[in-house]
Design goal:
The chain is of the alpha+beta class. It has three helices and 13 strands; from the N terminus they run βββββββββββααββα. The strands form four sheets. The protein has a five-stranded antiparallel β-sheet with strand order 3-2-5-6-7, with no helix packed on it. A four-stranded antiparallel β-sheet has the order 4-1-8-9, covered by helices on one side. A hairpin with a 2-residue loop joins β10 and β11. α1 runs antiparallel to α2.
Length: 205
C-alpha cells in the first residue's frame, strides 16, 4: 500500500488484545491535543479507529485535516486511569500495517491493523484483512463448541515481537481453510481476530 503524501493519513486502525475493556484516547504528535474521537469500550479482539473526519469543531468541521507524523494512543481503564501509551508512526512515509508503536504498552497489546489516506480519488485503504472469527461453531441446532480453527495466541505473540516474521505468520494463518485472500492493494488478508479470539476460547476451558 502506498500512502499519498500530498493528502496524508486520515485514519488509523488498531487491534487490541488486552484482557480488560478500555477507552483509547488519540493525541497529536505532541501528545497534548486530541486528534480523534475517543474509542470507548474497546474489548479484547476489537478494532479501534481514529479518523480525523469524525472529530469535529463547533462549526461541524474536522479539527485536523490529517494525522500528524506521529499519533499517540493512550489506553485508559474504567476508572479513567492511564494504563499505557504508545506512539504510532503516521507520517504516510511507509506502510505500518502489522507494526506496533513505541511506548510503555506491553508488546502485542496494540497492533496496527489498517490505515487510510485522504486522497478522495484513490480510495487508498490499506488493511491487514483480518476478519472476525467465529469463536463458537454450531454443531447442532442450539449447540455450539469452541472453534477448533482458532489460532494459538502464542504464535501471534512470537510473530508480533519479530516484525520480520509477521508476513510469514499472515501467510500461514490466512484463514481456516488455508486459503489466501488479497485486498485491492495486494496485501495478504488473514485472520488476526481469529488469533485474538483464541484468547477467549482458551479461557473457556
Amino acid at each position: 500500500c502506498d500512502c499519498d503524501k500530498d493528502y496524508g493519513m486520515v485514519e488509523l486502525r488498531v487491534g487490541y488484545t488486552g484482557d480488560e475493556t478500555v477507552t483509547i484516547q488519540w493525541f497529536d504528535k505532541g501528545g497534548d491535543d486530541q486528534i480523534c474521537k475517543d474509542s470507548e469500550d474497546v474489548s479484547q479482539g476489537e478494532e479501534a479507529i481514529c479518523n480525523v473526519n469524525d472529530y469535529l469543531d463547533s462549526n461541524n468541521d474536522p479539527v485536523y485535516e490529517k494525522l500528524e507524523t506521529n499519533t499517540f494512543a493512550q489506553l485508559v481503564d474504567a476508572n479513567g486511569d492511564e494504563i499505557c501509551t504508545t506512539e504510532i508512526h503516521t507520517s504516510c512515509s511507509r506502510d505500518i500495517v502489522g507494526t506496533e508503536g513505541e511506548g510503555d504498552c506491553t508488546a502485542g497489546l496494540i497492533i496496527v491493523t489498517g490505515w487510510k489516506d485522504g486522497n478522495p480519488n484513490d480510495d487508498n485503504d490499506c488493511d491487514d484483512g483480518y476478519d472476525l472469527c467465529d469463536c463458537q461453531v454450531e454443531i447442532d441446532e442450539g449447540l455450539t463448541e469452541n472453534n477448533p480453527d482458532a489460532v494459538s495466541p502464542v504464535a501471534l505473540a512470537g510473530a508480533v515481537s519479530d516484525n520480520g516474521g509477521y508476513s510469514a505468520y499472515v501467510v500461514a494463518n490466512s484463514n481456516s481453510d488455508g486459503e489466501l485472500v488479497t485486498s485491492d492493494g495486494n496485501q495478504i488478508r488473514a485472520t488476526l481476530f481469529s488469533v485474538i479470539c483464541a484468547l477467549t476460547v482458551i479461557k473457556l476451558f
